[in-house]
Amino acid sequence: MKFQLQHPVFLRNVSFNYGNGLLLRDVNLLVDYGEAVAIMGRSGAGKTTLLKIISGLLKPTGGYVEVFGCPMSFGCVKHIRRRIAYIPQNLALIESETALYNVLLARAPNKPLRFITSLWSRSDVEEALGVLKAVGLGDKAKTKVEKLSGGEKQRVAIARAIFQRADVLLADEPVSSLDFDTAEAIVDMLISLKSKGITIIAVMHDRELAFKYFDKIYVLENGVLK
Amino acid sequence: MRILLSTFITLLIFSYLLDVANPLLWTKLGTNAALFLSELRIEWGVMNDALFAVYETLVISLFGVSGGVLLAYLLAPLASPLIMPPAAAAAFRTLANFVRSVPAVVWAIFFVILAGPGPRAGALALVIYTSIYLIKFFYETLEAVDRELYNSLKVMGLSGLPLAFALYTHAKRHIVTQILFMLEYNVRTATILGLVGAGGVGYYIAHYLSLLNYSAVMTFVIATLALVITIDLVSYAVRRII
Q1: CA of B173, closest CA in chain A: separation in Å?
Q2: Which of A88, A101, A109 lies at the smallest CB-CB distance from B158?
Q3: What are the pLDDT digits (tens) for A200-211?
Q4: Band (B16; pLDDT cuts 50, 70, 90)
Q5: Read out DSSP for B127-174?
Q6: Is the ipTM of this complex over 0.90?
Q7: What is the rounded CA–CA span in Å between residue A114 and residue A81?
């Protein structure tokens, strides 16, 4: 199923109710290809929920969501999933495995048999190693993720998103637990993905980094995106 | 205090029903225990048989675990609502729960009837018994995996068996611990299965018990204990490594 790709992400009057109140109210969002968008707001404002709605993990209680030109209510979730990379706060890496394994994991949906048997083609492995090298982890490819630092783990998560060839990268507080210099290096790396045509939507807490690096900044307040 | 009192009253009632409080029983127990203890010694003449029986028990257990792990690895995702539609997962769980209620010794009798007496029947019985237990352990492990990892993999487009394998990899330390537990458990179970003709140490113990040859029984029991302790030590060492 192919759709005309006007905008990678389009939300109109989206609302979300958690049961004890309205978390998101009439949220409108239009993101262009290659754009970097920061979403800010207090803890519990609904920023993660918004990312989960865009990724198809949560269904909004009201409104319209369109990703890559395909309405989510139209059963598009399966079609859009391989094109979105989602990096949650805890990074969701398989810590007991190597950085290389975690990057190769991104190709598992396309090559399930190779993933299950761990018999990756030489070209896949070389490409994954190249991506790890590009994010500065060329010498850590065979290191288990649990032995990497916080910043290095972030780089593995970004490398996985690049290797996935995702068009949209959703990152939930990607630098919240890092010192300023490391955080800036990671944000710089995230933003550099724009040159590959990747759209970045990130939940950010650091105003300085957000204003310095992102094209657009939205603030979620009382369920409304401003 | 109430729990202790109610347990004591229950014990009294069942002692009466089972006639356990009968003084004649205790006299008989004492006499037979003295006779049994006087017979207790290792009978070196059956040691070769004992070592072979222990080896056979070990092979049955390892086969049971290997086959059981393979089946459970592939089937456990069917019972997980993270992988399957919730209704299908619930139906498979119900079926697995039903099969799990069948004791290992019943599976052994079943396979003795189908395959004839001997270690093959015990090995096949243990494959079924192990797999059905590991299915429960594995699907519980899948569900305990960090939800954000699951979400991230799902968004990436992973589903079905590849998704289950990625989650297994994440939980591999837990999975290995469960497999080692089943290996220890199987060695003990395989000992019992011999009593119904499914091979291993139990077969010989039942044979020598029927002949009232307690010293031979003791030899087999000691050989079994040595195997169980060895397996426990190896499991402990493997757990420390992973």
Answers
A1: 9
A2: A109
A3: 999 998 888 999
A4: confident
A5: HHHHHHHHHHHHHHHHHHS-HHHHHHHHHHT--HHHHHHHHHHHTHHH
A6: no
A7: 20
